[in-house]
Amino acid sequence: MNLEEKTISKNTLFSGRIINLRQDTALLPNGAIATREVVEHPGGVCVAALDEDDNLLMVKQFRYPYMEVILEVPAGKRDKSGEDPLECGKRELKEETGATAKEYVSLGELYPSPGYCDEIIYLFAAKGLSFGDCCPDEDEFLAVEKIPLKTAVQMVLNGEIKDAKTQVCILKLNALKEKGLF
After folding, report:
1. HEC string of the chain?
2. pTM for the full model?
3. Domain 44-178 adopts which CATH fold?
4. In the chain, fewer beta carbons within 10 Å around the N or the C end?
5. In the prediction, which pLDDT does 162 show?
6. pLDDT tens digit string along 67-87?
7. Per-domain residue ranges for the chain?
8. Which of 37, 92, 138, 140 is catalytic?
9. pLDDT in tens, 111-143
């Protein structure tokens, strides 16, 4: 069964600093025509950084769309769609927590909202941490916290950590740790 849709036309409705909004016309597999709204995003990276005591480096920050402070693993937007995800992850970890790591392991990719957004979030785990100064962006206000990995897993299961990329990173890292692979 053919499930693919073919783009007939693209129309940019908005171009912003972080996202663009596009309205496409698409040909469906059954021959019908449909309108598709797409949020274009350069993608992001997140890093589940684990210290020698099995504590995760996490950040609390206010997230405007939800009007609340949430707990996340360090993360950020790729400066451009061609930026190497690992280099972006290293930059974001340093900027937000002051940490650098000796070892990084890919935890894969995440499509956060595939129904309307083309964003890809690249997930990494890191260990062998050393610390220096944080240097967050001028419009970025956050607090760094260390949370034991097992506590973070329980927080995910209890619904205390709502951020999808953070949930996935924590659960994947924990699974790797339990199998002795990290």
Report:
1. CCCCCEEEEEEEEEECCCCEEEEEEEECCCCCEEEEEEEECCCEEEEEEECCCCEEEEEEEEEHHHCEEEEECCEEECCCCCCCHHHHHHHHHHHHHCEEEEEEEEEEEECCCCCCECCCEEEEEEEEEEECCCCCCCCCCEEEEEEEHHHHHHHHHCCCCCCHHHHHHHHHHHHHHHCCCC
2. 0.94
3. Nucleoside Triphosphate Pyrophosphohydrolase (3.90.79)
4. N
5. 97
6. 999 999 999 999 876 889 999
7. 6-40, 44-178
8. 138
9. 999 999 999 999 999 999 999 988 878 888 999
